[in-house]
From TrEMBL:
Superkingdom of origin: Eukaryota
Lineage: Eukaryota, Fungi, Dikarya, Ascomycota, Pezizomycotina
Gene3D superfamilies: Spore Coat Polysaccharide Biosynthesis Protein SpsA, Chain A
Keywords: Glycosyltransferase, Membrane, Transferase, Transmembrane, Transmembrane helix
SUPFAM superfamilies: Nucleotide-diphospho-sugar transferases (SSF53448)
Organism per entry: Endocarpon pusillum
GO aspect biological process, one term: protein N-linked glycosylation
Molecular function per GO: alpha-1,2-mannosyltransferase activity
Family in the record: Belongs to the glycosyltransferase 15 family.
Protein name: Mannosyltransferase KTR4
Amino acid sequence: LDPIGEPPEPLWRADKYAADNPDSPRINATLLVLVRNEELKDLLPTMRQLEEHWNHKFNYPWTFFNEVPFTDEFKRRTQDLTKAKCNYELIPKEHWATPDWISHELYEESTKILTENDVQYSTKESYHQMCRWNSGMFYHHPALKDTRYYWRVEPKVQFFCDIDYDVFRYMQDHNKTYGFNINLYDAPESIPSLWPETIKFLAAHPEYLHENNAMKWLVDSEARPEHNEKAHGYSTCHFWSNFEIADMEFWRSKAYEDYFNHLDRAGGFFYERWGDAPVHSIALGLFEDVSKIHWFKDIGYNHIPYYNCPNSPKCRGCKPGQFYAGEPWLQREDCRPNWFKYVGTG
Ligand code: GDP
Ligand code: MN
């Protein structure tokens, strides 16, 4: 594993893409933030960092989503940090509400068991709603109807490095679908039936499996076989989705839509605690060409408690190569080597 060093393709720094070239055409893209009014204080430093390191050169619009209206203070203080346009969008009830086929009794019962198994947040219904929205709803919001690429940002995350090229243009010009930053193992207890449901779906739709898929990565049991056992076949290794730079055309494809609807009906967003990270990762691993998935190793990033920290003079505030700040046992949660084993670091 070598998370260190400059990006491999100096070509994307050619004049055409240079940040100071006013003629460089902008891509159809937005910075995308699902956030609560109460999280404003945690969001401002994050926004300031991303503006300073990157977006003041490109001025991509920000789009904020919430299931309740944003306050005037929220709007004022976020817009104050950027020259770019800020959009404040309300999530429609039918995108956020727990679906009516979910039984409340069964939800209460099953989350009790999840809690006994130490699955974080399982009794918090809004957390389940958030995971479902991030899995299968956000890209259907009318405000994103004409938008193709997004960069997902959360309050409290940190960005450490100057980024002097247009990452959205990189995605488009290199025909990439999905960009990730950190790869982690998940808690198998949060997704016991996700892989079995996936296998059922695949049996009904073998045509969706891409010929250059990452199935071997999804089922790799070499490093932590106990995870595959508890998750019934899935290694739980996933792209950590609090960071995503991606093309919504993939989520809007028939394959993904059918897959999401299958999972949604199966109920695991509520009866278990399926995260959008394993759902996105499994779908990408099965239905997409692995060569369209890109590791943004040059974007220094932290979401507590993990880091991606390049060794570059463009970065400050993290230690080159560091993955965690706290207890060393966190190191074993890193599963990027699994990905590189099959796909490489390009
Ligand atoms: P974690 O990263 O898994 O610990 O989950 P977070 O608490 O960071 O939530 C993920 C993202 O969803 C963050 O951007 C939160 O601000 C946002 N979020 C989570 N729950 C809600 C909610 O109920 N309403 C809104 N509007 N945003 C939420
Ligand atoms: Mn978070």
